[in-house]
DNA sequence: AGACTGACGATCC
DNA sequence: GGGATCGCCAGTC
């Protein structure tokens, strides 16, 4: 079981749940919103266990490169289903779909 | 307590 | 613009 701080998990998932459909946010963006801009890696770790805590649109979270989770294969398909476009190299068009907060 | 790891970010080349 | 390297903070061993 993932033993991370409940507060951190709650904050991250709360922000992730606020991401509008068809938009994507970076880990750093979320980390900054919860007051932990340097802890972007923790955000990813929280998302890795998010499914254990509940249903959240964690597929709308990508890194600042527009790259998807390295240990996930459905994420790209889920985003495409929401209308998010990808570049030839498989990266998300952050320029078009990055969540403007 | 100490060292290694990581769903990242920024900078450098 | 893309790839490689260093740096951050917390978590896990």
Automatic annotation (TrEMBL):
GO terms (BP aspect): DNA repair; methylation
Pfam family, any one: DNA_binding_1
GO function terms (MF aspect): methyltransferase activity
Residues in Methylated-DNA-[protein]-cysteine S-methyltransferase DNA binding domain copies: 11-84
Coiled coil: none
Sorted UniProt keywords: DNA damage, Methyltransferase, Transferase
InterPro entries per record: ATL_DNA_repair, MethylDNA_cys_MeTrfase_DNA-bd, MethylDNA_cys_MeTrfase_DNAb, WH-like_DNA-bd_sf
PANTHER family, per database record: 6-O-METHYLGUANINE DNA METHYLTRANSFERASE (PTHR42942), ALKYLTRANSFERASE-LIKE PROTEIN 1 (PTHR42942:SF1)
Name the UniProt record assigns to this protein: DNA methyltransferase
Biological classification of the source: Bacteria, Bacillati, Bacillota, Clostridia, Eubacteriales
């Amino acid at each position: 079981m993932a033993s991370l701080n409940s507060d951190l998990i709650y904050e991250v998932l709360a922000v992730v749940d606020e991401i509008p459909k068809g938009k994507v946010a970076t880990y750093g963006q979320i980390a900054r919103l919860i007051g932990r801009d340097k802890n972007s890696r923790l955000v990813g770790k929280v998302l890795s266990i998010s499914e254990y805590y509940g249903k959240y649109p964690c597929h709308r979270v990508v890194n600042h490169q527009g790259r998807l989770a390295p240990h996930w294969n459905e994420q790209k398909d889920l985003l495409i289903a929401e209308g998010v476009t990808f570049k030839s190299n498989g990266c998300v068009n952050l320029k078009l779909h990055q969540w403007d907060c």
